[in-house]
Amino acid sequence: MDALTLLLLSVMTAATPLLLAALGELITEKSGVLNLGVEGMMIVGAVCAFAVSVSTGNAAAGIAAGAVAGAAMALIFGFLTLTMLANQVATGLALTIFGIGLSALIGKGYVGIAVAPLAKLHIPLLSDIPLLGPILFGQDALVYLSLLSVLAVYWFMKRTRAGLVLRAVGDSHEAAHAIGYSVIRIRYLAVLFGGAMAGLAGAYLSLAYTPLWAENMTAGRGWIALALVVFSTWRPGRLLAGAYLFGGITILQLHAQSAGWGVPSQIMSMLPYLATILVLVIISGDRAKIRLNAPACLGKVFHPAQ
């Protein structure tokens, strides 16, 4: 029972940064913007969160700094693509490269420093229930935030007028503009939200998952988050399932190495990325479903003068 509880807890911690980053990218893409810079925003959020947490001794300040740093990176992307009309794919790739270099520069003085991981929210009696207690009532704040964010994004997309407007902008920006909505402003807000969520994902990595700073510690999770959005066909519920599926694959390769299965560690480390490629290949076979759920204006440039 203890081993099963530990395994499930490990899956939740591995899935949380993927879920946070993918939810932000889902909102961004629903507005019609394709931001491939998730990895760069995550890594900058991770280093800024760690640096502020070490400097202030306050984990909450570090989490806030991570979200702000991710949003600042997203603002750069938004200015280049929405105001200057730069190519979204090229700008997103450049943002990732820039973020990796910037994070290495900022984190140079923090290598080798460790901090206490985020505190778990222990609820008396409930946290002591076998198996379910530690899983449901013994997590840190960002795990609960990621789960609540799934519900919030679903409610926003399906039950609010603002969510309807966001989807309208992503499906037909010209029509939304014609009836009086500010397409650029709405897309800026969506891009900033996506950046803040990516920054929170990075903060979770450096303050909870592995509470230290190391260069390239995101290790491709930003790209997996991008794939999860397509895997989920832009639906929050499927995104939750996908994040925990990939979290489980990540933990599987770690447990397989520790159990001495005799499989080369390099092959086991490849599992999450091989699974990502496999899922994308399978999904690409059902192009009708992708066309049905994908925002029609995804990646397309819009200018109010048009």
Question: Which short descriptors sum up this protein?
Answer:
ABC_transp_permease; globular; ABC transporter permease; 73% helix; ABC transporter involved in vitamin B12 uptake, BtuC; transmembrane helix; 306 residues; transmembrane; single chain; mainly alpha
Question: Your description of this structure?
Answer:
The chain has helices at 2-30, 38-56, 59-83, 88-106, 132-137, 141-159, 161-171, 173-178, 183-209, 221-231, 236-259, 265-284, 287-293. Helix 1 packs across helix 10 (221-231). The mean pLDDT is 90. The protein has a single domain, classed as ABC transporter involved in vitamin B12 uptake, BtuC. By secondary structure, the chain is mainly alpha-helical. 73% of the residues lie in helices and 0% in strands. The longest helix is centred in the N-terminal third of the chain and has 29 residues, at 2-30. 42% of the residues are buried. It is globular, with a radius of gyration of 19 Å. It is built from 13 helices and no strands. The termini are far apart. Pfam families: BPD_transp_2. Its main location: membrane. One of its GO terms (molecular function) is transmembrane transporter activity. This is ABC transporter permease. Keywords: Cell membrane, Membrane, Transmembrane, Transmembrane helix.
SS-derived structural category: mainly alpha
Mean pLDDT: 90
- The count of strands amounts to 0
Q: What integer value in Å does the Rg equal? A: 19 Å
* CATH fold-level name: ABC transporter involved in vitamin B12 uptake, BtuC
- At CATH level 2, the architecture is Orthogonal Bundle
User: What is the H/E string?
Assistant: HHHHHHHHHHHHH
Percent range for β-strand residues: under 5%
Shape descriptor: globular
By CATH reckoning, the class would read Mainly Alpha
The CATH superfamily label reads: ABC transporter involved in vitamin B12 uptake, BtuC
Terminal CA distance: 62 Å
- Report the sheet with the most strands, covering strand number, pairing sense and barrel closure: none
* SS element count, helices: 13
User: Could you say how many structural domains there are in total?
Assistant: 1
| Fraction of residues in helix | over 70%
